[in-house]
Input
Amino acid sequence: MTNTSNFNVAMGSLIRKIRESKTIPNPKTGKLLKMTQTNLANYLGVSFQQVQKYEDGRNGLSAQRLYYVCDYLGTKPNSVFEEIDVELWKKKEIPLIQNLKAKNNETKT
Output
């Protein structure tokens, strides 16, 4: 797994966490319901499967799409970046960095 996909996993996980903490009124009863992937997908004009891919980290989001996601979720893009679990991301980058250093040392000898 590359550091880009690690970032996508961290970003998607955070988006899921924020989405699941939100509620929206049921149009028929007015009762508050948890926001679903379908609610977010309808707002974005994509399928709920695409939202699943964002939340699982299989697909990354463009800056524009992230802006719209944050707008719908009532948060700011910069706050999303601040909340990403950077430690998890760094832990997964360590093997990549070690491999790059090893390759660099191989070319020097």
User: Anything to note?
Assistant: The chain has a mean pLDDT of 84. Residues 86-108 form the longest helix (23 residues). The radius of gyration is 18 Å.
